[in-house]
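Bumping with the actual sequence this time:
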Amino acid sequence: MFLTLALLFCSRAGFSQESVWTKQRKISEVIDFEKKLDPDAKFLSHNVSLSKEYYPLAGRYQTVNPVIVQRKAVGALPVYAEYFYTPKDSLLRLVSYDWEKGVMET
């Protein structure tokens, strides 16, 4: 439901679905996707953990610190994308987008 609402918002906000990752693939494919969107994208490193309240499958899939991408603010495109994945198989398990500028800056 949330993903559907997010995609609906994105389509009305002036950019296409190609700006938002919607598939469960390997993290290397996600990184390639982000580099194609913006070759100058900034990849950040922060310690982030997931609670079962936020991600109900946190007990089943132990993720490592996410790949965090800081994008250039363009229209309604998310400013930050967090890609959580499991280290054993490198499969993407959760994507979180944030539109608030400066959230990940330290």
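The tokens above came from a reply further down the thread. The two ends are 32 Å apart (CA to CA).
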